[in-house]
């Protein structure tokens, strides 16, 4: 025997569910959108503060934390690492782009590997008087996901943010490279993919994670400047030597520098000290960039 009461109630239950479910979907969507825009606005405020107030430990710490805690390993050889590289590229593009700092983020011609096309990202301060003379400053956003490599890429990212209101004479172009390669190979990528027609690179300044443990008593800085022109470029930037720059017929001079704050073997269990020292490093590099682009 069929229960007429149950039969009569079932359509009512279905009607109620049909009314309630769309409301739940709408409420869930609204909550998601509110949280999304809250987080986007929070990051926008963070980057606006960097532009307004310059280099601060709290801003650097937040940026480093995103690389170590949110993104993790960024290497091309593994699935996890490739995902990390894509996330890092998205974070750099979003953080420096029009919605935050205000740069136009450009992407280079890419290189195919593991079924994907890997591109460098760049932002620039256009030269006021000599825009076709370009100083390239670069770092790889690849890394093991440790504090050392996070500090390295964060240093250039926070420099680009904090210098957004500068007006150099020459164009200053910040480049974030997808591969962790030798200085020679990185220079080739930069000069082939990161210059436009009619532009001339007057010099390259690159940042690298320190591969070998620092030696006791050695200088905190390690510099790769193999040629006489590279060495002259380094002396000009760091020691006030005579003006240097690439000529029309030669490759541009380059220096690739690293520091103990970018070493996995240094500043162990000294998180606050590493952050403070990294800001000192960033200030030194900022002075080099302004000098190179004047």
Structure description:
The protein has 294 residues and is an alpha/beta fold. It has a single domain, classed as Zn peptidases (Aminopeptidase). 49% of the residues lie in helices and 17% in strands. The strands form two sheets. A seven-stranded mixed sheet has the order 1-4-6-5-7-9-8, with helices on both faces. A two-stranded antiparallel ribbon has the order 2-3. It is globular and about 85 Å long. Mean pLDDT is 87; it is low at 44-49.
Q: Please give the alpha-carbon distance between the first and last residues.
A: 94 Å
CATH topology-level name: Aminopeptidase
Provide the CATH architecture.
3-Layer(aba) Sandwich
Classify the helix fraction into a percent range: 40-55%
Explain the layout of strands and helices.
Blueprint: H1 4-53, H2 57-71, H3 79-96, E1 106-107, E2 111-113, E3 116-118, E4 121-125, E5 130-140, H4 147-162, E6 170-177, H5 183-193, E7 200-207, E8 221-224, H6 228-239, E9 254-259, H7 271-292
Helix pairs in contact: 2-4, 4-7
Give the tags.
294 residues; alpha/beta; Aminopeptidase; globular
Task: Give a short synopsis of this structure.
The chain is α/β, with parallel strands linked by helices and 294 residues long. The chain has one domain (54-292): Zn peptidases (Aminopeptidase, 3-Layer(aba) Sandwich), CATH 3.40.630.10.
